[in-house]
Amino acid sequence: MTTTEIRTPQTRRTGAAVGAYAAGALATLAGLAYTVADQAALHGLDRHLHAMYDPVGKYGQAGPLYAYLYVVGVLGIVCFAWALRRAQAGSGRALSVTLLVLALLPVFAPVLITEYGSSVVPLSLLAGLIVGWVCGLIGTVALFRGTGKA
Fold first, then answer.
1. Rounded to an integer, what distance in angstroms lies between the CA atom of residue 100 and that of residue 4?
2. What angle do CA 92, 139, 22 make, to 5 degrees?
3. What is the pLDDT of residues 39-82, one digit of tens each?
4. Where are the domains of the chain?
């Protein structure tokens, strides 16, 4: 004997939001893993900073930028876990909007910060955070989407 689950518009919205939040958490985790790999072995940020600052006789420290990426990434994963739990409980709308707005600046500010005609943090190190934020946006939209027809 099998049972059939009846999905109401509310559960479809919640399911879409949960899927988007899970994808966002995974993207953020992948971004963190890439940041660890870059710091430990690839040294892309260090090379980027040397290429940007050496011609003008300065040196940019990679350590604080890595710390920033770690803090934003870990906070992102914590926020996704929190939003996932609230979305599954059916009460995540306000929290989702709040977290999305609060994450906007820390995620996108490094894209806008440039010196000597180049972004201070390479986009490759920000990609996981940006994709995670976009997944959070998709999840938030899914929570607010009208019931419409099934």
1. 35
2. 95
3. 999 998 999 888 888 888 887 788 899 999 999 999 999 988 88
4. 10-144
59 burial (CB, 10 Å; 0-12 / 13-18 / 19+) is exposed
Contacting residues for 40 by C-beta, under 8 A, at least 6 apart: none
- DSSP letter for each residue of 85-124: HHHHTT--HHHHHHHHHHHHHHHHHHHH-EETTEESS-HH
- With contact defined as beta carbons under 8 Å apart, do 17 and 140 qualify? yes
Cα–Cα distance measured from residue 95 to residue 101, given in angstroms and rounded to the nearest whole number: 10
- Give whole-number Cα distances, 111 to 7, 38, 44, in Å: 40, 18, 16
Can you give the pTM of this predicted structure? Answer: 0.81
| Separation of alpha carbons 64 and 66, rounded Å | 5
* Residue closest to 95 by CA, chosen among 104, 107, 83: 83
Residues 27 and 137: their CA atoms lie apart, in Å, by: 13
d(CA 29, CA 31): 5
Closest by Cα among 38, 26, 123, 5 to 73: 26
What's the mean pLDDT when you consider all of the chain? 84
